[in-house]
Amino acid sequence: MKIYDLIILGAGPAGLEAALQAKQKGIDALLIEREEAGALIWNTMHSKKFLHAYGRNTEKPQGLLNFPDRLTGGELVNLWRKQAKELNYLPNTNFLGMETGETFNLKTTGGEYRAKNIILTTGTMDNPNKLGVPGEEKYPVRYELDYNQIPFEEKIIVVGGGNSAVETALECGLDNPVKMIVRKNHLRESVTDRNKDELKKAIEAGEVEMLYETEITEIKDREVALNNGQTEPYDQLYVHIGYKTPSEWLTSLSLTLNEQGLPKIDRNFESSLPHLFVAGALTGADSVVESANQSIKIISHLLK
Asked: How far apart are CA 170 and CA 165, in angstroms?
């Protein structure tokens, strides 16, 4: 069986950048993705203008992956998918497991593959944090906003104090009454200045109402109960309180985790398992550019 220099799991920005860098540097690499390249952005932000400086980190793109600003998510991903055609790339292929030894032996729905090195860029978006209150599993709760299907003239409740919550409130507030529930008395520090400014305008325009120091204690049919004894009606309920790392899955790969439940990595993004590297959201990166730039550093390290 052929042994690749590198197998990359996940074709988001970190995985694509790693594969592009590997090709340019002459590293024999295989990119494996369970859907299509950039699937998350394509599915949820297809028609939304995409700002690559999103998040607390405003790094400049340093690599080969296209990052023109102010495109829609769909336009951006189309550029990425065009670049992916240049790569040794397996889309629509699920990772099933891995055995370690002198090399990594990966089992997928497309067959088995061996590699000397692995870069894990699978992200955390499949694991949203939940409120953990009665009714959450019974009634419809959305953990991300589909920008292709924005509600119209409905009562919206958004839970969370970060960028995702703010942007959902802003987007929905254009055509719907929105109430934003924040557990603390302030937004998260990671909220960008741009989002803070836009939220202030929306509040002044009566598009968004803030409920600080408030928590949902129960979800009912078209109504939520709050910790202050009051209730609020809703047609759509969005919960944006972050994502949990798939700790059980990572542990099954024999990776040591840190206190945050993220893989423990060194300055080269190498995990506790030698020759297995981690990039993107699994490191705590909160922007697509930061994720991609991490992969550049990993490829540079592999060339040493």
From this structure: 9
pLDDT in tens, 46-88: 877 776 555 545 578 899 999 887 788 899 999 999 999 999 9
**Dihedrals phi, psi of 289, to nearest 5 degrees:** -70, -45
Q: Which two tokens stand for residue 37?
A: 């390249």
Judge contact between 18 and 279, C-beta under 8 A: yes
**Token duo for residue 131:** 């409120």
Across the range 84-111, mean pLDDT stands at 97
Q: Report helix, strand or coil for 244.
A: coil
Which CATH number is 3-125+243-302 given?
A: 3.50.50.60
Which one, of 206, 196, 146, lies nearest residue 176 by Cα?
206
Residues 179 and 212: their CA atoms lie apart, in Å, by 10
CATH fold of the domain at 156-239: FAD/NAD(P)-binding domain (3.50.50)
Q: For CATH 3.50.50.60, list the domain ranges present in the chain.
A: 3-125+243-302, 156-239
User: What's the pLDDT tens digit per position in 228-270?
Assistant: 999 999 999 999 998 888 898 999 999 999 998 899 999 999 9
The DSSP secondary-structure symbol of 282 reads G
Count other C-beta atoms under 10 Å from residue 35's C-beta.
15
Residue 249: partners with Cβ closer than 8 Å, 6 or more residues away: none
pTM of the model: 0.84
* Strand blocks (E) in 133-195: 156-159, 178-181
Average pLDDT over residues 181-198: 92
- The alpha helices in 25-61, defined as continuous H runs, are 39-44
| C-alpha dist (Å) from residue 160 to 26, 187, 237 | 44, 8, 11
Residue listed under structure tokens 């594969």: 19
The SS3 assignment for 145 reads: coil
In what helix (H) or strand (E) does residue 115 lie, and over which residues does it extend? strand 111-120
For the chain, the straight-line distance linking the first and the last C-alpha, in angstroms and rounded, comes to 26
